[in-house]
Amino acid sequence: MATRAGDIDPGVLTTLMRHENLSPSALEDLLNRQCGLLGVSGRSADMRELLAVAPEDARAALAVEMFCYRVSKYIGAFLAALGGAQAIVFGGGIGENSPEVRARICERLEWFGLRLDAVKNKATVGTETCITDDTSRLPAWVVTVDESVLVAEQTAAAIANHTQPQAQAEALA
């Protein structure tokens, strides 16, 4: 996440509140606006900036490394839980526009038979393309995504589904 905390042990929450004298709203602000790439790097939530300064900035390098590690860890966990997948899809700002981040993530997935085509990956920014080579057991794709449209569509569907059971209950009454 750019500014939000990822997985966190629940005990950390009360410890932070107690030792840092944080109110619930201050803790919420910390976890949602001051963690993630920003919190680890101490500099920025923008992956482009962090990649640019990582060679000279150890905290920026750590933030990038942690991000790539965590994404690959979750993909691996989902592959195990699902018993495999038909493809890995990179979308959104970082997924669509950062060949370096995609390469770091995919490198950790070679155990599953994912073989990145370095030339295709490097050439793919903001376009839809398969970025794995022909021998890859698991294809990886870059897909353009308008995240705000997806959020709006999912919100509308959730609202429609929430009101529907109520209307059905009223019809039965």
Shape: globular
What is the β-strand count? Answer: 3
Name the helix and strand elements from N-terminus to C-terminus, one letter apiece: HHHHHEHHHEEH
Identify the strand order in the major beta sheet. 1-3-2
Low-confidence stretches: none
Rg estimate, integer Å = 20 Å
Q: Report the β-strand fraction as a percent range.
A: under 5%
How would you sum up the major sheet? 3 strands, mixed
- Report the average pLDDT across residues: 92
Derived from helix and strand composition plus strand pairing, the structural class reads mainly alpha
Q: Your description of this structure?
A:
This protein has 173 residues and is mainly alpha-helical. 61% of the residues lie in helices and 5% in strands. It has 9 helices and 3 strands. Strands 1-3-2 form a 3-stranded mixed β-sheet. α5 crosses α7. The longest helix has 26 residues. The radius of gyration is 20 Å and the shape is globular. The mean pLDDT is 92.
Notable characteristics:
9 helices, 173 residues, three-stranded mixed beta sheet, 3 strands, mainly alpha
Topology (elements, then pairings):
Elements: H1 10-19, H2 24-33, H3 36-41, H4 47-53, H5 58-82, E1 88-90, H6 92-97, H7 99-107, H8 118-123, E2 129-130, E3 140-142, H9 147-172
Parallel strand pairs: 1-3
Antiparallel strand pairs: 2-3
Helix pairs in contact: 4-5, 5-7
Summarize the structure.
The protein is mainly alpha-helical. Helices cover 61% and strands 5% of the residues.
